[in-house]
Amino acid sequence: MALLEVFNISKNFNLKPAVDNVSFSLEQGQILCLLGHSGCGKTSLLRIIAGLEQPDCGRIIFDKQDITSIAPYQRSFGMMFQEFALFPHKNVFQNVAFGLDVRGEKPNIKVQEMLALVGLEGFAKRNISELSGGERQRVALARSLAPSPRLLMLDEPLGSLDRSLREHLMGELRKILKQIGMTAIFVTHDQSEAFTVGDQIAVIHNGRIMQIDSPENLYKHPQNTIIANFLGFHNLIKGRVLSDKGVQTEIGIFYPQLPDLNPEDNITLLLCPEPVRILTQSEQGKELEIIITARVREVVFQGPIYKVTVQTDSRMKLIFNLSSAVSRPDKNEIIRLGLPFSALLYVQDYPASTSPG
Ligand SMILES: Nc1ncnc2c1ncn2[C@@H]1O[C@H](COP(=O)(O)OP(=O)(O)OP(=O)(O)O)[C@@H](O)[C@H]1O
């Protein structure tokens, strides 16, 4: 049974849709990430759920109650923003106690509990100016969790931190939210953040949800070209459906799993960048393997992988992730690459003739 249900929410600003017919549901204790480029409508959607903005149409149900029109404070939701706005003149304890004070609750035990939860025991008397960026974010998290919100909304909470700290804190954040079973919506434009923190990810484009899925499903089965591009997949290959359900492309005829399509339909296939291997000169490809012969154009070492750009005879550029445990291919070398057939996926063109679900 879903805790939060959002039905057909839309919101226009100056006649332009910021949120466009969005529906989704969220179970108790789940973390949903709203992922998308700047300006795609993530914050607007969050503000509508928080009650800070009224939708033009649609309904929001929380714990079986229609909350679409009720005031933000009556929703008992928590929020944490990138500009965490801690009170600089109050110490750590007073900051975390803020939401409890407002409700007239005695803060002592709860504040200590929250500081322990975020790994800041012993920090209660510190001034905010004496904290690092990461410690401030922990205080902000403790402050938003202290009043035990029914739903926590986080808008780019790690955006202002440097990369290594962000990477550390995103894992911590998920652990903390899971430890207390908090239901949360987390807004980010950063794919790795969404993959680390979310149970579910909703990819948003022009105010619409393109796909809502687990991180793994999203990565393994991006449904359309917008999502594939957003996830950083480069190998999008145009093709034409043949009468035997094969697909004619510039680099050969393939037989990927296809939805119900007609012969002569023009479609796009995604060739995933991994797993891929280089075949030796004499080696035959394995059964059920796609083989591509191409010239190496660029090799970039990225730790566990080489990012290898190759160019086929038909001048198509493709990019693959090759394990850096094998020897580095040379620039201009002609190589044969082997990929499993499962690396070739059908992706819907977007915008398409039919709108996404
Ligand atoms: N109060 C407002 N008045 C007018 N236009 C607005 C308002 N709030 C948002 N918009 C517009 O709605 C669109 C979506 O904005 P929103 O802030 O929701 O996007 P976002 O995905 O959160 O972006 P970012 O990641 O940059 O914060 C943008 O085009 C923005 O300019």
TrEMBL record:
GO CC annotation terms, alphabetical: membrane
Domain ABC transporter: 4-231
GO biological process: quaternary ammonium group transport
Ion transport listed as a keyword: yes
SMART domains linked to this entry: AAA (SM00382)
Domain of life: Bacteria
Keyword Transport: yes
Protein keywords: ATP-binding, Cell membrane, Ion transport, Iron, Iron transport, Membrane, Nucleotide-binding, Transport
MF GO annotations: ABC-type ferric iron transporter activity; ATP binding; ATP hydrolysis activity
Stored PANTHER family: SPERMIDINE/PUTRESCINE IMPORT ATP-BINDING PROTEIN POTA, SPERMIDINE_PUTRESCINE IMPORT ATP-BINDING PROTEIN POTA
Protein name as catalogued: ABC transporter, ATP-binding protein
Source organism per UniProt: Desulfonema limicola
